[in-house]
Structures are given as structure tokens and as C-alpha cells.
Here is the input.
Amino acid sequence: MLAKCRLASLLYPLLILCAMVSVEAFAHGVDDSTRNFLQNNTGIQIVPFMYIGAKHMVTGYDHLLFLVGVLFFLHRSREVLLYVSMFTIGHSLTLMTGVLANIQVNAYLIDAIIGLSVIYKGFDNLGGFKNFFGKQPNPKKAVFIFGLFHGFGLATKIQEFELPAQGLATNLFAFNIGVELGQFLALMFILLAINYWRQFSSFNKFAKTTNIALMSAGFMLVGMQLTGYFIY
Here is the structure.
């Protein structure tokens, strides 16, 4: 029983953290040291931007929750690679395009849509679309589309700092590489935890509960972002 509880809790910390962090954290918040660096940055700074990108992804609870949902029932390495690639291409496109083309999108609304992506994946994992609508949206296309919104979420925060044009493309590319490195580290942990848990009967027992918790976190995220949109 103790082993089962321990295994079931491997993914729960991500969900619990969502209930504990502030609106700023859910909105891709930036800590003071990073904020000061970005506001005072001049010229090309490849390594610092890579570090900031990696840290941003590793601490991005909404991104991690979505990835947990995407990977939860994937068994084959080929499938994992395909879905992660779709997500990566999506958020890389809008991250780079959003900043370089100066496409302005409200950060709260984008983050609310990111919350919807978490709800969607939990609902999809529970078979909700097939049970209620008789048809499941194409999961690969959905991951790609939501990846586009996740990229805009990153772009909105970069745009807030009005980075100088000199070296912007290079710094942005370095930031994106850092995001991918951070995503890779996060994926390793998530996949190790899920694959280890799958060896035990508690995985099937708690699968429904975990995805309901995932949806709950998504609803919380949407509510907090919409509250921020209407208040601020």
C-alpha cells in the first residue's frame, strides 16, 4: 500500500504546486534577477538567454502539466518523439514569429487558452470526446495547435521587456534553444516517472484520478487568468 501511494504521488506534486503558486507564476512570471537582466540587456548574450529559456520551461507549470497529459498514455518512443516534435514546432514558430514580427496578444487571454489546453488533454485522456461527442479531435493536430498558443505565451513575456533590436534574433534563437533544453530535462523526469509507475497496478487505478486532477488544475489556471484579464 505504501509503495502504491508513493507511485501515485509521483505526478501529483506538479498538480499540487499549481494550487500553491501565484497568478504571476501561472502567467509565465519572471523573477527579479531575470527581469533586471532583460531590462538592462544590450547586444548578443547567447548563454544567458539559453539559461533563461531553460529555466522558464522547467518552472513553467502550465507547459509541464500539458506535457504530462500528452505523455500520460503514450507507450512507444516513436509516438513520444512525434507528439513532442509537434508541440516543439508549434511553440517555436509562434515564439520566434510573435517577437520578431511584434504580434501583440493579451498575455492573460493567451495563458487562459494554455489552461484550456491542459483541460483538453485531461478530458481527452479520460475518453470524454468519444463518450460525449462520439468523435475524438485529431490528437496530433491538437498538440500542434496548442503548441502555437504555448509559444505565444512565451512571446508575450519576452515582448514586455522591449528588448533592443540589436542582436534580438540571435538572443531569441538562444532563448528558444534554452526552452528546448529545459523541455528535454522536464520530459526525462516525466517519462521516467510515468514509465516506472506503469509497472504497477496503481497506474490504472489512479489514471482517472490523475487526469481529473489535471483538468482541475487547468480550470484553476483559466479562472485565474480570466480574473487577471478583467481586474488588470
